[in-house]
Specification:
- This protein is α/β, with parallel strands linked by helices.
- It contains five helices and five strands.
- Helix 4 links the parallel strand 4 and strand 5.
- The protein is globular and about 50 Å long.
- It starts with a strand and ends with a helix.
- The mean pLDDT is about 95.
- The structure holds flavin mononucleotide.
- The site of flavin mononucleotide has 16 residues, from helix 1.
- Flavin mononucleotide binds next to helix 1.
């Protein structure tokens, strides 16, 4: 039996009752035979990015965040859209990694789960392309109307959404093999 791939899931929402967090919990449950998930839902604990602090001794929380990324086989980012863009907290977390190579050639799955989310999805792809991560069309998913599509029991009633999530998992698994 091959070892399970280690996935770090970064949640772009800071809400306790986040539907993005629920969606990742669902993906974790659906893929538990193949992936070993660590969920990072603490982006709000990172300080505001400041290039002056991005030196040889960055803040401890930043060091820990970068180490989690570096140590994972693959990264899943699951985020809502805020004001036609990425939530500031997620953008801030990513900015802390720009001066490093932790994302370089890392396989990533990019899910935007929001009311609408088109702009955030586009931006996320541009940003992760700039950071030289590896992803493709099939490991990029946009789920509109997320709040109505997953409940507290992690049930996804809409068959198309569930099908898209399952297809995404298979594509992400394939990407991790490459
Ligand atoms: C400040 C704010 C701005 C938002 N702006 C957008 C937006 O531009 N586009 C969109 O699709 N949803 C927007 N939303 C709605 C979010 O998509 C929705 O609340 C989503 O469920 C949040 O994800 P979460 O449940 O994981 O927290 C906004 C929500 C907030 C709180």
């Amino acid at each position: 039996m091959t070892a399970k791939k280690k996935i770090l899931a970064i949640i772009g929402s800071t809400r306790a009752n986040s539907s993005n967090l629920k969606l990742v919990a669902k993906i974790e449950a659906l893929s538990k035979e193949i992936f070993d998930f660590t969920i990072f839902d603490e982006i709000s604990s990172l300080p505001h990015f400041n290039p002056d602090l991005d030196n040889d001794h960055p803040p401890e929380s930043v060091v820990s965040f970068r180490e989690k990324i570096a140590g994972a086989d693959g990264i899943l980012i699951c985020t809502p859209e805020y004001v036609f863009s990425l939530p500031g907290s997620l953008k801030n977390a990513i900015e802390w990694c720009v001066s490093t190579t932790v994302f370089s050639q890392k396989p990533v799955g990019l899910i935007t789960a929001s009311a609408s989310g088109d702009k955030a999805s586009e931006e996320l792809q541009l940003i992760m392309q700039t950071l030289e991560t590896r992803f493709n069309e099939d490991t990029t998913l946009l789920i509109k109307g997320i709040k109505g599509k997953i409940n507290d029991q992690l049930e996804i009633a809409d068959p198309d959404t569930l099908s898209n999530v399952l297809t995404f998992i298979t594509a992400f698994q394939d990407l991790l093999k490459q």
